[in-house]
Amino acid sequence: MESLLEIRNLKVEYHTYEGVISALDIEYLKLQKREILSLVGESGCGKSTLALSILKILPPNGIIKNGNIIFDGLDLVKMNEEQMKKIRGKRISIVFQDPRASFNPVFTIGEQITRVLITHKNLSKKESLQEVENLFKMVGLPDPKRIINSYPHELSTGMCQRALIAMALSCKPDLLIADEPTSALDVSIQAQIIELLRDLKNKIETSILYITHDLAVAAQLTERIAVMYAGNIVEIGNVEDIYDNPLHPYTYGLLKSIPKANTAKLETISGEVPDLFNPPSGCRFHPRCPYAIEVCKKQKPMLMNITENHSVSCFLYSEKNE
User: Fold this and answer.
1) Which of 144, 162, 192, 231 could form a disulfide with 46 if both were Cys (CB 3.0 to 4.6 A apart)?
2) How far apart are CA 123 and CA 131, in angstroms?
3) Contact call for residues 181 and 205 (beta carbons, < 8 A)
4) Rounded to whole angstroms, how far apart are CA atoms 72 and 96?
């Protein structure tokens, strides 16, 4: 399949009064056209930083130190702000975790979405309002006219999230980034949003980068999973590969820590998440890894292909791959 997004040797830092945080160090990540890829990892591992880097909306202290973000043949890292404005919202959209925080509370939902359509699609106010109604029907929102004239606080969290998804899809983007879009919702609404995203991906033929800490949610929605730890991609594979044959010790630990209905015991990964002000040398997971060998402490393992669709960043597989 043809690739839409390729991340190559991307390093991102946050400069603070306490020092420099090494937030991202991604060797390679690819998203194909019309694919849903899940990015999975613990809170603070750099998932949201990657999303902000793609859109180039990092906070002022965030710096892309080096690397490439190739989107449909264009290197976003080299683009200036005026060039990025033509891509954000039109060709790449994002849905954040908290839908109410994503809307301006002093404007109606309709006003905010029509502004996107007028800006990027040059529609008239009347045409944009009709388009918003169509979008609301597409995402399963009842009584579109009422919601168009509603303020964010007048809608439930689930309805706000659907409206936000409608706004993100209003220009039929090539790429939709969904950053933990179901974590603020109850379980039944989560399932509805997941089903909605799967359905919309086929309707508008968009690619989706789905960011989550929940492997179970990722398995329901996506075809492939990329596992992130402390700013690094440690494993990439099809859902079946990740679940049935996890290669990286961190992936294995994540799967073991999923609660199971037939046991009260909850397994955990030993140790603590590393301090990214001063990350461990070599493999960032080695202080917590029960299989670490001497080289893990000294060198960062490269991402290597074990099979055509399954890659891992771990020295345990170096000899097998040679």
Assistant:
1) 231
2) 9
3) no
4) 23
- How many angstroms separate the CA atoms of 265 and 280, rounded? 30
Distance from C-alpha of 143 to C-alpha of 151, rounded to nearest angstrom? 14
Give the Cα separation of 118 and 257 in Å (integer). 47
The CA distance from 133 to 140, in Å, is 11
pLDDT digits (tens, 9 = 90+) for 293-322: 999 999 999 999 999 899 999 999 875 444
What is the torsional sign of CA 270, 29, 207, 179?
positive
pLDDT at 102: 87
CA 256, CA 270: separation in Å to the nearest integer? 12
* Average pLDDT for 253-264: 77
Q: Print burial letters for 17-43: b (CB count within 10 Å at least 16), e (below 16).
A: eeeebbbbbbbebbbbeebbbbbbbee
pLDDT number for residue 266: 72
Q: Is the pLDDT of residue 100 over 90?
A: no
Q: What mean pLDDT comes out for the span 219-234?
A: 93
**Alpha carbon 59 to chain centroid, angstroms:** 17
Q: DSSP readout, 150-200?
A: --GGGS-HHHHHHHHHHHHTTT--SEEEEESTTTTS-HHHHHHHHHHHHHH
Cα atoms in the Cβ-side hemisphere of radius 13 Å centred on 20: 8
Q: Which amino acid is at 140?
A: G
Return the number of other C-beta atoms located less than 10 Å from residue 257's C-beta: 12
Q: What is the pLDDT of residues 230-245, one digit of tens each?
A: 999 999 999 999 999 9
Q: Does residue 19 come out as left (phi exceeding 0), alpha (psi in the -120 to 50 range) or beta?
A: left
Gap between the Cα atoms of 40 and 254, Å rounded: 10
Q: What's the CA gap between 87 and 175, in Å, rounded?
A: 10
**pLDDT for 138:** 86
